[in-house]
């Protein structure tokens, strides 16, 4: 399972990736999670990325490409990986192809989780995440995570103004990748505006799982 999850912010990429990880144990490579961890740890990368993330803009390609190519070289990705939030620009897609061809690990599919932008605004402004285990849900700020008891919080970029900018950035920079992966005959589109378990059934069917 060498896959890319495509889709607008809030389409449900992280939700579906978590289900795949739980059932199959495939490594989940989320650039958003990697960047948030760097920000929380106060690393140089985190300091560089924070202002872009807070505004809902993309972190520069040279920063993110190096991070992902290094991660893909890990032994744990030899039997599969789920890329979530990468690639997001044409330059990232080209760099990914080059790295995977070097590693001899071609992509099996690019799954596009398709959701209407107005549905997304409502989803993201009510999303809460667990600081400890990354569980995604909609509990009140400060409530306990139903999975591990950790603190649920709202991401800094989940306010309406930033969400709308993230949707604009997606439309301009990332949606061209839909045609790119269609041209590579890797694109599978899944209606993401249904119950997550119904979406997941389609994800598994698309991957022959
Ligand atoms: P990132 O963390 O990747 O954010 P994103 O793409 O905006 O995606 P999200 O995590 O917000 O949404 P998701 O699709 O995973 O949805 P989720 O499953 O949580 O990136 C953050 C920032 O980092 C970027 O803005 C950028 O600055 C930077 N960055 C990251 N990667 C980069 C890159 N490659 N290049 C440059 N910069 C980069 O679901 C959302 C909500 O909906 C949840 O509340 C969930 O419970 C709910 N939900 C999910 N599925 C359903 C469903 N089927 N029905 C109803 N509700 C649902």
From TrEMBL:
GO molecular function, one term: AMP kinase activity
Location of this chain's protein in the cell: Cytoplasm
Reactions performed catalytically: AMP + ATP = 2 ADP
Region spans: NMP: 30-59
E.C. code: 2.7.4.3
Binding of ATP, residues: 10-15, 127, 194
Primary location class: cytoplasm
Pathway it works in: Purine metabolism; AMP biosynthesis via salvage pathway; AMP from ADP: step 1/1
Binding, AMP: 31, 36, 57-59, 85-88, 92, 155, 166
Residues passing through the membrane, by range: none
UniProt keywords, alphabetically: ATP-binding, Cytoplasm, Kinase, Nucleotide biosynthesis, Nucleotide-binding, Transferase
Annotated Pfam families: ADK (PF00406)
InterPro entries linked to this entry: Adenyl_kin_sub, Adenylat/UMP-CMP_kin, Adenylat_kinase_CS, P-loop_NTPase
Subunit structure: Monomer.
Family: Belongs to the adenylate kinase family.
Entry domain remark: Consists of three domains, a large central CORE domain and two small peripheral domains, NMPbind and LID, which undergo movements during catalysis. The LID domain closes over the site of phosphoryl transfer upon ATP binding. Assembling and dissambling the active center during each catalytic cycle provides an effective means to prevent ATP hydrolysis.
Its biological purpose: Catalyzes the reversible transfer of the terminal phosphate group between ATP and AMP. Plays an important role in cellular energy homeostasis and in adenine nucleotide metabolism.
Protein name: Adenylate kinase
Taxonomic placement: Bacteria, Bacillati, Actinomycetota, Coriobacteriia, Eggerthellales
Name of encoding gene: adk
């Amino acid at each position: 399972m060498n896959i890319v999850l495509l889709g607008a912010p809030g389409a449900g990429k992280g939700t579906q990736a978590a289900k795949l990880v739980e059932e199959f144990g495939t490594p989940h490579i989320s650039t958003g999670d990697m960047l948030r961890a760097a920000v929380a740890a106060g690393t140089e990368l985190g300091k560089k990325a924070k202002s872009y993330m807070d505004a809902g803009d993309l972190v520069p390609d040279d920063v993110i490409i190096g991070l992902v190519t290094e991660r893909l070289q890990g032994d744990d990705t030899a039997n599969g990986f789920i890329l979530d939030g990468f690639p997001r620009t044409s330059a990232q897609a080209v760099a990914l192809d080059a790295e995977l061809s070097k590693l001899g690990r071609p992509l099996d599919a690019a799954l596009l989780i398709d959701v209407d932008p107005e549905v997304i605004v409502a989803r993201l402004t009510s999303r809460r995440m667990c600081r400890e285990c990354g569980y995604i849900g909609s509990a009140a700020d400060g409530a306990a995570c139903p999975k591990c008891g950790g603190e649920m919080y709202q991401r800094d970029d989940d306010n309406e103004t930033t969400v709308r900018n993230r949707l604009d950035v997606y439309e301009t920079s990332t949606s061209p990748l839909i045609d790119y992966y269609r041209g590579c005959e890797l694109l599978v589109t899944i209606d993401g505006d249904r119950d997550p378990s119904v979406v997941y059934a389609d994800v598994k069917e698309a991957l022959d799982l």
